[in-house]
Design goal:
Blueprint: H1 38-44, H2 54-59
Length: 65
């Protein structure tokens, strides 16, 4: 901590811990769909011009395509 003449030292930052709220059982289960399987990718994933983006397309849920 830098000290400036004529000013009191600032207090150090305290670490804050944030607790996530409990999972909502009434939430849309479509949000929890796992990544697309191989046959889903072949069916719905659009072709990508840049092959470096293939991993992004593969990780998307099938209902996004």
């Amino acid at each position: 901590m830098r000290k400036t003449p004529g000013r009191p030292a600032r207090p150090g930052r305290s670490r804050r811990r944030v607790d996530a709220p409990a999972t909502n059982p009434d939430a849309d289960p479509g949000d929890d769909v796992s990544a697309a399987a191989g046959d889903d990718r072949a069916r719905g994933a659009r072709p990508v011009a840049d092959p470096r983006e293939d991993w992004i397309v593969e990780q998307r849920p099938p209902h996004w395509d």
